[in-house]
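Structure, all two chains, one model.
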Amino acid sequence: MEMVERALGGDRLSLSRLITLVETDQRAARPALQELYPHTGRARIVGITGSPGVGKSTLVDRLIQSFRAGGRTVGVIAVDPSSPFTGGALLGDRVRMAERTLDPGVFIRSLATRGSLGGLSRATGDVIKVLDACGFDVIIVETVGTGQAEVDIIGLAHTTVVVVVPGLGDDIQAIKAGILEIADVFAINKADLPGHQRTVAEIEMMLDLGQGQRDWRPPLVATIARDGTGVDELRRRIDEHYEYLTTTGRLAERQRALVEREIVELVTRSLADGALGSAREGGWLADLISAAARRETTPFEAAEKIVQAWLARSGK
Amino acid sequence: MEMVERALGGDRLSLSRLITLVETDQRAARPALQELYPHTGRARIVGITGSPGVGKSTLVDRLIQSFRAGGRTVGVIAVDPSSPFTGGALLGDRVRMAERTLDPGVFIRSLATRGSLGGLSRATGDVIKVLDACGFDVIIVETVGTGQAEVDIIGLAHTTVVVVVPGLGDDIQAIKAGILEIADVFAINKADLPGHQRTVAEIEMMLDLGQGQRDWRPPLVATIARDGTGVDELRRRIDEHYEYLTTTGRLAERQRALVEREIVELVTRSLADGALGSAREGGWLADLISAAARRETTPFEAAEKIVQAWLARSGK
């Protein structure tokens, strides 16, 4: 496919169009993704997550500079899984970052919810593949919050940086509610605010409690994204985590787990779309729903009928 | 099944055992759920959600009293989708409520995450069916927060009450991030705290902005769960919303949508389990994952092979 060849060759416009295709029409994008796939698997994927207002975008901006100073190219995917109500903020932040896109070693793209949250996680995975195949050394995935969609998205990263700020009690809450398990590195941003030491102590305490069998203890890095303080150290810690993944064989494990997850999702979607699509077109999905809603049949029996009819039809 | 007959006949111990079965072993519970299903569809399902600390449990406790004063029986399912780290709080709250369970017209059960979040939403749906079939007039589903799992769970309710407290900026954030769309009634709890009027004004403003095509405007009820203030009005508003659903035909729509969602999930899981289980047992799922991880094949091709092999095998 010409668009793919051009994007692989470094053409920015083709890369942009390819991402739009991948984002908007999964079926049409499949041949392109097939062609790209053998070129993937080389990029280092870094997730950055944290509550709104902790300064993620500025920190990402600074991290880009730090990676660029070391000669590495950087792709950024900014994902906002929240409702359209808050969709504006992230795009606003991106305007500030746009100046960086004059650098051909940097590519920034925002993804917002289109329909299902599962779809957003899928699209993020596919955009990562495009950037990976096109040779970006580092891919930063930035996302907000701690919901299931965000956890799914951040699960695509090799290294996850959780950004918190001092004195926000609800950040600690967010950490408790699942983020502790996904953090490989903590950035305590706005480290010049009062309460910094207390936040550090609280997180260290939670790490002490939750450590158990883990052999990587997430380091805490004090940063002030506004003026760049601590950002090079944060970048070094990210690199150290990648080293750790590589030398312990966990990187290979993680890559395998991601491939498995993708195959499982593709199999699941393909079969479900096939069986349900066939039942929908035949008009009997609606009939079965009505019958179950009237309690004349059960959802189990209805599902079983759909599965059997599909298998009988497809196995020929 | 004897356990089912006894539970339908009002035996508490059988009801309890039935719920444990449904919660822990979906496959083994299927015959029981099949038998119960024709008895379902009569209960009114009320969801109660909000951030930790807004007083949901006390409010639920008061709502139980209000429904009981009107002669209605009440089942409560308290769901905590957060990580094991915070799992304790909810159970502690329940101890306080336990005294109410001496009333045979009240049944309370906590559900916590076991494995996948999707599994929790499925279990909640099945426990609702058990309580519905066993004749509880009102089923209250209480859950924390705004993640996808919570939205899925709250989607099982006919009427959703969102509980907020004055002066919590992050509550407004939570509302913005999706909860506005799911609220049918707002309870502004701890209404004696400073900032009450401001919270009311903020929510009213958001409702003004987001109203658009909706023909039900969520009412705001000021409550003080601690002393019971406003709880009867809250109960009336919940009843009014149910009236609205019934008279506009939306209740039937909603019931149909729930049945459809359940059939779709059952079909999807049945097919995916079949195809992936077969590939796993045959040992070639692992081979395909390895090949895709080495970039010798693509996830699309691997998925396609699994699907085709399964269809060829099952269609015979």
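Chain A has three domains: 1-38, 40-248, 262-314.
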